[in-house]
Amino acid sequence: MQVTISGLHLHYGGFAAIKGLDLTIADGESIVLLGQSGCGKTSTMRCVAGLEEPTGGHITIGNDVVFDHHTGRAVPSFRRNVGMVFQSYAVWPHKTVLENVIFPLRMKKVRKAAARDKAMEVLALVGLEHLAERGASQLSGGQMQRVALARSMAMEPSVLLLDEPLSNLDARLREDLRVELRRIQLQRGLTTMYVTHDQQEALALADRIAIMQDGRITQLGTPEEVYARPASASIAKFMGVTNILPVAALHDGVVELDGHDVTLATEHASAAPSTADAVAVRPDDIRVRAADESGTEGKPSSGDAGDLAGTVTVAVYQGSSVRYQVAIDDGPMLEAICPVDGGLLPSGARARVHVPGRAVLVLPDEVPEPLVPETVAA
Amino acid sequence: MTTLEKRPTEGPPARPPDQPPRRRRWRRPRKLASLPLLVLVSFLILVPAAFVLLTAFNNGIPRPGNFAVDLTLEHLAVFTEPGVLEATLNSLLIGISATLLALLIGGTLAFVTARTNIPAKGFVFLIGLMPLFLPSYVGALAWSMLASPGAGLINIGLRDLGIGATLDIYSMAGVVGVLGMFYAPYAFLLLHSSMSMMNPDLEDAAGVHGGSTWRMLRNVTLPLALPAVLGSALLVFTHVFENFPVAQVLATPGQIDTLPTFIYRLMNASPSRGNESAVLAVVLVIVVLLVTVGQRRILARRSFTTVSGKGLKARRISLGRWRLPLFGFALVYLLLSIILPLIALVLTAVRTSPYMTSFADLAEPGALDFGAFGQVLSSGLFLDATKNSVLVAVSAAALGTVLAFLVGYTVYRTRTAGRGLLEGISMVPLAIPAIVLGMGLLWTWLIMPVPLYGTLGVLVIAFVAVQMPQGLRGIAASIQATERDLEDNAVLHGARRSRAIFAITLPLMRVSIASTFLILLMLSMRELTVPLFLYTSDTQILSIAIFDQFENGGALQEAAAMSVIYCLIMLVLSYLPRRFGGQLGN
Amino acid sequence: MRTKAAALTMSVLLAATAACGGGHADDGAGHEQVLAMPDDIDTSDGLTIEGERIADDDLYEAAKKDPVVLYSGSGQKSEDLTTARFTAETGIDIQLMRMPTSKLSERVLSEHGANQLQADVVRVTDPIVAQRLSDAGVYVPYRSPTYDELAGKDNAVFDGGRYLTSYYSVYTFAYNSAMLAPEEAPKTWRDLLDPTWEKELGVVHAGAGGTVTALAAFHIDRFGVNYLRRLGEQSPRIFDTTSVQIEALARGEISAATLGFNSTYGAKIEGAPIELVVPDEGVSGSFNLMGLTPGGAHSAAAKVFVNWTMSKSGQKFAAAQGFVPARTDTPKTPTGKYQLPSADSDKFHLFTPEDAEKRSGSTVRAWNDAFEFTG
Asked: Which domain holds residue B500?
């Protein structure tokens, strides 16, 4: 079901956890709230679930207003038909796996036999039907997570909420389950809200990502959009862009870096925001080649503001790619990830670094308040 | 303590079965790590118990100078005495009823203070705690003054108001009511501690998945509180079962015999029938041991780890329209357990004549004399007794908490052999009526070459021994609920085990350690029956002084005055640990 | 840190209370109410009271140095009064530890067996217990100045002088004078059988101690076993100790009770609305026996205590409290407005040690039967 959040505020004890948040989740859509701890993402989720009472705003699930500060309406969580998978799984240790999963059905007064069938069906979906009679306290982390998921799915929720569902698992399991989660969500058409601080997870699971910083959404867009066009330097950093460089001046598509005698070309000059604070360049977009053997010291060719010379300081072989750290002459440290077939440069080698204009994003440090929703700033 | 440093977290990971175990290298026997503790606890508890056991089957009482072992079975004939069966049944009935009542009161108060939005939560917490500082003896005395059928203050009041009903506290209902009321704090503290530590997600999950508040309580909160519930039920039952003072004051006048009063009477008979009392005591031990074993079995099967490393506060449940009724319940409990008894004590202390037909008598000139308090306060007996009480109580509580932690850690956190035995031994004092244990302790410390008899030291040792079970229970539920991983984590990061315990486990358990210390402090201040045999004229403590004044001196007025002052002292004492513990606990 | 803070607060509290009125209250200050102090106490050469020599010079000087430690199974109040009087008359300090006789004997035998007996003088109310103590060596022979005179009588001195009768306890009955007018009150033992007193009486069960066994034996001897049965049919409240019973009587829980004279009298003079009755049919008597311990035999103060107890002054004070003195050559002293029979009167039914040995068990059993009392 569609979920609409408007004007959500949450204050406690003088601290504002959520500051005027607006978000609409379409039916069957998967939204990921992405942000660092303390940004208010979990609080937002708990407000939707009914576990926190907001201090202002309006929430509807489907056609039901579950919270409205003006009218004072607040539907308790057990009536919202919202499923939730907690970070700690919250699988009840004193019950069996089946008893855990069947709980919401029993609460809905589904007859025992029918409830059992449904529970087993959902357990099969997560691959745990053989553990139905096992005590829940005897499960591994991954199994518990799946039980929690099955439990929420068994109730056929209007919305499924997942709070950092994979953060307690080891990396390998995390990747596998990530795929599982996405598959089940798509297969069932579940309206889902995830909360996570892991951008990879967000990219994998989301139809849209909502970046949250300091209690508000600073960018909302598809994973591709957010990945390719973060709205601010801080968001870019969060998304894994390691080359964030402060800007001294910007004119006519040329960026002068602050504190360095280096210029870069950018193709995004026309869309640059009024406050050009920094540039962000993905390591993947930077090309590093060996300096010419002809001995020319890599002076930038005319007109090409992104052609730089520097020295490789670190080269990390990653199998199909190489990660370089290059110290640009009179310039900053740049990180680049290049395919290996370009040749492996050793540490200390002289190199030529090409920063294509299309890869140079000019961004403000932070997204200014208030944000205009649904548009993406470049 | 060296024991802890030697112990590893777990054994090494299981070797594949086809590998032969290594025998070449001699490892320090890990299995004996619990030995020093075992020896200490055995000595403290088993030696007196052994004396009691011996006495049951011995000709003559094993007294120093009279120490002949001459076994016989003839004392078993006491079971054929007509009153014994009735006394046993009464004890069981009272035990079960009072335990249920105590759990109901204590559990409700624990729940509302730990998990809900009840008004004046701190105050309600105090209400749940306060009866602890009113010793059950004093409480029973006060209720006797309030509701004795002929001259009870409430009955006089009812007569004054023209209401024909009469309360008779000298009845089953009266005994169960008073016992339930005054043992509720035990249940309260243990359950509160358990509920405060519960992972709120578990309850939130129930809420989210369609469980109303009531369903959530039934399906999640209460079952998870089971270790604490069972633990406190066991504790309260055995306390009630073997309680002597309340039975003596309230049940005996109603001609209701219980096992402890029966035993007391046998021991006080002239000539003393100590052997037969010891036989009955042995029966008590067996009963309670069975109960303890059963409880361990039940709990061993389920892992109830609820405290994770998240440090989240337990969720507050909104009580809605139940807010005021439940607060009212707490107030009624306060009235019955503290306010009315104190009023009765004060009134009795300041009345110049013990006889009163109506409250109007109090208005007569000279009917009240508040000087009684001054007299008591300035008496040498009172001052000495107070000083002794405080010294002994604080020492015993501190030592007892430390010992309880060491034992609790060994029993619930390690896999050394003998830890089951350690727990069993630690629980033994519960099953031995304090009066009989007191006798055993008397003989033990008379015979010991260590010159502790006649000093406060022997009282401290006796209290530590007798209160092992409470200390252990207080620590146990908390240790069971705290994840091992947190401490193991520290060890893996290079901390020695003892350091890990100090840095990780102890702070995590600070709420329960503080409440354990508090419980032991209260118990030591209240302890009446054990020191009854161990005190000498210069090591009197307050509880004895009060009992003595009444039981042996018939000086109800002095006893009442002392009781009031005693309660005030207990109030102060109970405030301090709570305040510091509370700071730690939040 | 918690404990330090607690201790600190306690110390402050104690200091405050001590400041309110320090020192030791004289718990037995009422002794002058019981009987006026003797006029004639001469301490110039040893101790002489009313012309009777209690201690010679050496003994008296030595006695002033250490207190006497008295373990007693006799009533608390009366011992408080007695000990206070002793100190007042002799100037010697005395420490009292009071416990019911059966517990006391346990304690004494244990301490003695471990060579840790702290008592100098032990006083018990049960002749069987006294003999047991004597057999165990707790009592050692001693001759007070009045020894020869006492030895000549029956039931005064025992076991070669190891223990003697300090005085006799009397058991009778009493009623609450605020509830009952004198005309309504019971006056004789037989009165107690009147249906008016059904469920209004209190008794202490016969197995509780020598004094009550003595009363039961007296009833059987004087009125026959049927008396007990009929008294049992009155459904009285059964108590374990006299002191609790006295308190219940004073409060009005019961209207009348059979009880020990001296402790009840002590409560009366402190203001309890109780009237005692010395019925014409007679009263029962039991022993208050005392002796010196091995420690006491070396304590000058203890010896003075025994001497004083058996002196005219000591015996007079006992009588004034409501005991029957062991000595029959002291002038008859009333107890307030009451006059108890003397030891050689026929109204005084003494339960002798032989009686105790032979009949205690059967008496208690008969009583238990009559009152349907178990245990």
From this structure: 32-67+364-586
Mutation to test the B interface, candidates A46, A51, A52, A167, most B Cβ within 10 Å: A51
Asked if residue B446 has pLDDT above 80, the reply is no
pLDDT score recorded for residue B578: 59
Structure tokens at C349: 């039914």
Q: Do A152 and B220 touch (CB under 8 A)?
A: no
**From CA C351, how far away is CA C345, in angstroms rounded?**
14
Query: B262 lies in a domain?
Result: no
In a domain, B239, yes or no: no
Segment C267-318, tens digit of pLDDT: 888 778 899 999 988 999 888 899 999 998 898 999 999 999 998 889 999 9
Do the chains contact at B211 and A103, CB–CB below 8 Å?
yes
Q: Give the domain CATH number at B455.
A: 1.10.3720.10
Check pLDDT > 70 for residue A44: yes
| Counted domains in chain B | 1
Q: Report the neighbours of A using a cutoff of 3 or more CB pairs below 8 angstroms.
A: B
Nearest to B553 among C2, C22, C77 (CB): C77
> B581: pLDDT confidence band, cut at 50, 70 and 90?
low
In a domain, B547, yes or no: yes
For B529-562, give one letter per residue: b (16+ CB within 10 A) or e: bbbbbbbbbebbbbbbbbbbbbbbbbbbbbbbbb
Taking an 8 Å cut-off on Cβ atoms, the answer to whether C116 and B454 are in contact is: yes
ipTM given for this complex: 0.77
Token couple for B240? 């009630």
Please, which residues have CB within 8 angstroms of residue A130's CB and are 6 or more apart in sequence? none
CB contact under 8 A, B446 and C103: no
Q: Which residue of A has its CA nearest to B306?
A: A93
**Chain B hits for C264, Cβ within 8 Å:** none
Position A377 confidence tier, pLDDT thresholds 50, 70, 90: very low
B538 part of a folded domain = yes
pLDDT, tens digit (0-9, with 9 covering 90-100), for A307-351: 888 899 999 988 888 998 998 888 888 898 888 876 788 888 888
Contact B566, B138 (CB under 8 A): yes
Q: Which fold has domain C39-168+286-325?
A: D-Maltodextrin-Binding Protein; domain 2 (3.40.190)
CATH T-level topology, domain C7-11+169-284+343-371 = D-Maltodextrin-Binding Protein; domain 2 (3.40.190)
Per-residue pLDDT tens over the stretch A53-71 = 899 899 999 888 999 999 9
Distance CA A370, CA A19 (A): 10
Distance from the B97 Cα atom to the nearest Cα atom in chain A, whole angstroms: 28
Using a cut of 0.80, tell me whether the model's pTM lies above it. no
Q: Which helix (H) or strand (E) holds C277?
A: strand C274-277
